[in-house]
Design a protein that fits this description.
Radius of gyration: 17 Å
CATH architecture: Up-down Bundle
Distance between the termini: 33 Å
Number of strands: 2
Shape: globular
Helix content: over 70%
CATH topology: Rhomboid-like fold
CATH class: Mainly Alpha
Order of helices and strands: HHHEHHHHEHHHH
Strand content: under 5%
Strand order of the largest sheet: 1-2
Number of domains: 1
Oligomer: single chain
Number of helices: 11
CATH superfamily: Rhomboid-like
Length: about 200
C-alpha cells in the first residue's frame, strides 16, 4: 500500500494536469517576450499610461520581462516554488491566488508607491505563491512549510532593511522592487486564508 500511495503522490506532482497553471502563466510570459520591445512598451506596468486609461497593464505588467535572462530567472523561481507548493490547492483556487496576489501588487504600487512609474516581472507573483503555499502547508502541519515560511519572512525583512539580495539586480538586468515581494506574499497569504476559511465553513454546514 505504501508503494501505491507513493506512486500516486508522485504522479499527482509530476503529471501534466498538476502543471497546467504554471504552464499557462509562463506561456503568457514567453509570448510577451517574443514580442520584444513592442511588448514591453505596450504591456508593462506604466503608471502614467494606466492613469490615462490603459488598465490592461495592471494585469499584463506582471508577465513582462526585461529580457531573456530576467524571464529565465523568474521562470525557474516560479517552477521551483510550484514544485514545492503546487499541490496545496486545486487549479481554480490557484487562479484565485494569482488574481488576488496581482491585485495586492497593483494596490500596493498604486497607493503606497506613487513614485513607482514602471514595473515588470513575475517575482511579486512568485512570492504570492510562496505566501499561499506556506499558509496552506502550516495549516496541514507540514514542517517543511514552517521552514519555508521562516525563510520567506527572513528574506522579506532582509530586503526591507538592507535591499535586494546580493546579485539579484545583476542577474535580472534592472532594479529590483523589493516591496513587490512583500505585496505579493501578503496577497497570496490572504487568498490562501480566504480559501481555507471557505473550506472550513462548507465543512461545518
Amino acid at each position: 500500500m505504501g508503494l501505491g500511495q507513493g506512486d500516486s503522490s508522485r504522479h499527482q506532482r509530476f503529471g501534466f494536469a498538476a502543471w497546467v497553471v504554471p504552464i499557462a502563466v509562463l506561456s503568457c510570459a514567453v509570448i510577451i517576450a517574443i514580442l520584444g520591445d513592442a511588448g514591453r512598451v505596450w504591456l508593462s506596468y506604466d503608471r502614467p499610461q494606466i492613469a490615462a486609461g490603459e488598465l490592461w497593464r495592471l494585469l499584463s505588467g506582471h508577465f513582462v520581462h526585461l529580457g531573456v535572462t530576467h524571464l529565465m530567472w523568474d521562470a525557474a523561481g516560479f517552477l521551483l516554488i510550484w514544485y514545492l507548493v503546487g499541490q496545496s490547492f486545486g487549479r481554480l483556487e490557484w487562479i484565485f491566488v494569482i488574481l488576488v496576489s496581482i491585485t495586492a501588487l497593483d494596490l500596493g504600487f498604486w497607493f503606497l508607491e506613487p513614485n513607482l512609474k514602471w514595473y515588470v516581472g513575475l517575482s511579486g507573483l512568485v512570492h504570492g505563491l510562496v505566501g499561499a503555499g506556506v499558509v496552506a502547508g502550516i495549516k496541514s502541519g507540514r514542517i517543511d512549510m514552517w521552514i519555508l515560511g521562516v525563510a520567506l519572512i527572513g528574506k522579506l525583512v532582509y530586503e526591507a532593511l538592507v535591499g535586494p539580495l546580493p546579485g539579484s539586480e545583476e542577474s535580472s538586468g534592472g532594479a529590483v522592487i523589493v516591496t513587490s515581494h512583500i505585496y505579493g506574499a501578503i496577497g497570496g497569504a490572504v487568498a490562501a486564508s480566504a480559501i481555507l476559511i471557505r473550506v472550513r465553513a462548507k465543512a461545518s454546514i
